[in-house]
Amino acid sequence: MNDLDSTLCPASTRLVGRDGDLAFIQSFFSNSEVYGAALLLSGEAGVGKTAVLDSVAKGAVHNGIRVLRAAGVQFEADISYAGLNQLLVPLFDDFDILDTVHRDALRVAVGIGSGPPPNRLLTSTAALLLLRLISVQTPLLLVIDDLPWLDRATNAVLGFVARRLVGSRIGFLAASRDGSESFFESSGLPEHRLEPLDEDASAELLALAHPDVSPAVRRRIAAEARGNPLALVELPMALSAEQRSALAAVPTVLPLSDRLQAMFASRVAGLPDRSRELLLIAALDGTGDLAAIEAAGSGRASVDDLTPAEHKRLVTVSADNRRLSFRHPLIGSAVVELATASERRRAHQALADVLSDQLERRAWHLGEAAVGPDEKVAALLEEAARRRLRRGDALGAVTALTRAAGLSTMAADESRRLAEAAYVGVDSGGELEDASRLLAGARLAHPVTGEQSLHAAAASAFLLINRDGDIDTAYRLLVGAIESGQHGYDASDTGLIEALHLLVLLCWYGGDPKLWEPLMAFVDRLTPEPPELLWVITQTFGDPARTGAGALPKLTELIATVGDDATRVIRVGTASVFPDRLGDFRWATRRLVEQGRAGTAPVRRHLGALMHLGLDYFHLGRWEDAAQLAAEGLALCEDHDYRFFAWYFHYIQAVVAGVRGDGETSAALTEEIVRWATPRGTHGARFFACHARALAALGSGDFETAYQHASTLSPPGTVASYVPIAMWGTMDLVEAAIRTGREREAAAHAVAMRESAMAGLSSRLELLVLACEALTTPGEAGLALFEQALSLPGPERWPFDVARVRLFHGERLRRLRATTEARNQLTQALEAFRRLGAEPWVTRTASELRASGQSAPTAARPGRVALTAQELQIATLAATGLTNKQIAERLFLSHRTIGTHLYQIYPKLGITSRAALRDALSELETNESE
């Protein structure tokens, strides 16, 4: 067995994001085919080479391996054998095991003996013999850091030794920086490059090293650091407390800590002044546009002055597209760090002067060039924030508003801008902690404005409902702010319109028709008229069973022009949920989900897209996809502390579980929704739970329970006002009523459906209306209604609903002895239910088909819970109490991946939380052993 065949890095010394690298190093040295081997590590400055060497060395010592270390030191680079002296100091007393010639040569080389200088071959051979003899008793690992700084003689000896280790008990591990020249002869030796950390590892390292830094600032730092661990750890240290918490704007170019200055600034300091000036303009410009950089430096520097920087490999200049790029973003930071404040302001002003046709960039540079409050520049930044928000850059808008607040000449304006930044943060950006700080800053700057601002009220209401506050309190706070506001119900007042959009959601969450009365009055008072999108939402999202059909023409126009603004996509989606129009712009919602996954869309908009796409996929029959989106949404809620929105995703999971026949899981999920929603007054969420419960009860054949839940959703004989999901449960109520002998209630509900605007909203809802009329109409007239329902266009869009109607139609035909026609409808229904995986309905339909005289396969019994091997491993670890991050460390996955897996595991086990995992796994083990 190879003595290095041990875990070199115990769990206690784990490096974030380096599990794969450490595993590779371990496997390299434990491979019997390279018994006794050398490996070179390379990577950019600050990538963590020394940390990896330290971790490997500690692991080796832990496993009984003797470690000898040396590191290059710049001021010793001219002293021959200084590095060899470092390496062999622990072995000085063992030199006597060598023969006299080799012993004396080695003693002279490392400076502890006297005599003529030995030749290099003799010294190299002596070092190799010494190491081999020592390793007979104890395996050795030679760890060399900063090879380029070692003296030339030592490099020669180490190169000689590294090539002659095969068959020994010696390992050789050395590290050098990319692009560094060295006297070490590395040709022919295996090399492993340490890459920058990936996105998940960067986020984890930042969170561990700087838990107090705002999530938005962390993402900015991660983007600048590009996975460089030293930069990730050091960059936040150079920020002020206000900048770290997002109360003050973070500079366009991040400042460097002392360690980063030592690493990067030293490479810049020796450049000519004209080169540094042009590099400063380029760093502050940030776009790499050489034309703008040249124009800003006109009269002081030209593009030819970049040549020294190119020779030092600090920048690249492309003649093809006239672009300049820094080899690493921190080189730009170093340039800025070395400049004086007046030099930076002059560069910003020069850039602002040449960017007169680009408002956003000009406003930003003017803001950075300002030396004190400047209302004109603050107003430009505020307008820049509006533009950024319109194109979906919520975090950019928050940054611009925060900077505008800092330049405001009046305290009231400073407070107003901070309040708006807080609202944008909660509504779009997903930065709840930052929003709380900005809101506190607004109140501190000007208490009256900070309390009365509609943006402040809206941000406060949102934070209240997300932090265990009740809907009623948030609703009253926002209504009061709107009623007392000095807006004159001007439809162009963005603060007012944003507050009304939030009020729509609060009314909907509350589930009480009375809540909508003030909102509708506010919208009616808007002058000259309400914004089209806001008006459509109030019609199709509030009480669509009565008002939705009249808004469909405008909804169609909105869908046709949905564009790519994240906020607009989600709000048009909100207006489209109950008219079943989500599929008409599914492409836009999918794109938003992908942008959210890539970190380029605001978190709350990402959540909204997952909700809409999940509902769309459920009706489309893509139930597995819907469940996976729900799991992703729940993981996102947990990661970003959006606790309020978890119930949406629990609903999707519950309704999917219910139609698949997993009643226990569906019941557990709906119980979680009700338990969470009841004390908060979120009755809208409770209605969704009723819908899922009714469907699950229908599937299990418990028609009385189904009737009770469907009746809670909407009393028989009326489609409940301002409870739009009541439309989705209408056929459930009618079916349950008929199967429990309540024909009168069923007929009354069918009449109410026809009298409502349901049939005019979508072909699916018209299908439900016609089916319920058919169910409550006897004889041939009823059959004609079934046929009319099943002839509606686009049945493939609603496979589950259509299959249910075919089942009803087949049952009616069989009872009327139209056997052939009955079998046709039942066969189509059975095929659809099987494709969907709707096991309870497969069983019922197969039974009905057999009753018609046609044999049908026995419906498959619902299988036992089946977890994949990875899911079982994750669930078992989570049940022991390990956190997602700890599990991720053990399995070499990201903590977000672990969260997604857990939220897929919970429904399979019929649980809703981590606390129930242990019992669920025990029960699973018991079932499998039976």
What does this structure look like?
- This protein has 930 residues and is mostly helical.
- Helices cover 63% and strands 4% of the residues.
- The chain contains 48 helices and seven strands.
- A five-stranded parallel β-sheet has the order 2-3-4-1-5, with helices on both faces. A two-stranded antiparallel ribbon has the order 6-7.
- Strand 3, helix 6 and strand 4 form a beta-alpha-beta unit.
- Helix 25 runs antiparallel to helix 26, helix 25 runs parallel beside helix 27 and helix 41 packs antiparallel against helix 42.
- The longest helix is centred in the middle third of the chain and has 19 residues, at 411-429.
- The protein is globular, with a radius of gyration of 35 Å.
Task: Note the gap between the termini.
Answer: 43 Å
Largest sheet descriptor:
5 strands, parallel
- The average pLDDT score comes to 85
> Can you list the strand order of the major beta sheet?
2-3-4-1-5
Beta content comes to under 5%
Identify the overall geometry: globular
Structural class: mainly alpha
* Number of DSSP-assigned strands: 7
Instruction: Give the % helix.
Output: 55-70%
Radius of gyration computed on alpha carbons: 35 Å
Low-confidence stretches: 1-13, 857-863
Provide the fold topology.
Blueprint: H1 19-30, E1 37-43, H2 49-62, E2 66-71, H3 82-88, H4 100-109, H5 120-137, E3 140-145, H6 152-162, E4 170-177, E5 191-193, H7 199-209, H8 215-225, H9 229-234, H10 241-244, H11 258-269, H12 273-285, H13 290-296, H14 307-311, E6 315-318, E7 323-326, H15 329-338, H16 341-354, H17 359-369, H18 375-390, H19 394-407, H20 411-429, H21 432-445, H22 447-452, H23 454-466, H24 471-484, H25 494-510, H26 516-525, H27 532-542, H28 544-547, H29 552-560, H30 566-576, H31 586-597, H32 603-620, H33 623-640, H34 646-660, H35 663-677, H36 683-700, H37 703-713, H38 730-739, H39 743-755, H40 763-775, H41 779-790, H42 799-815, H43 819-836, H44 839-851, H45 869-879, H46 884-891, H47 895-909, H48 917-929
Helix pairs in contact: 4-5, 5-6, 11-15, 12-13, 12-15, 12-16, 13-16, 16-17, 17-18, 18-19, 19-20, 20-21, 20-23, 21-23, 23-24, 23-25, 24-25, 25-26, 25-27, 27-29, 27-30, 30-32, 31-32, 32-33, 32-34, 33-34, 33-47, 34-35, 34-36, 35-36, 35-47, 36-37, 37-38, 38-39, 38-40, 39-40, 40-41, 40-42, 41-42, 42-43, ...
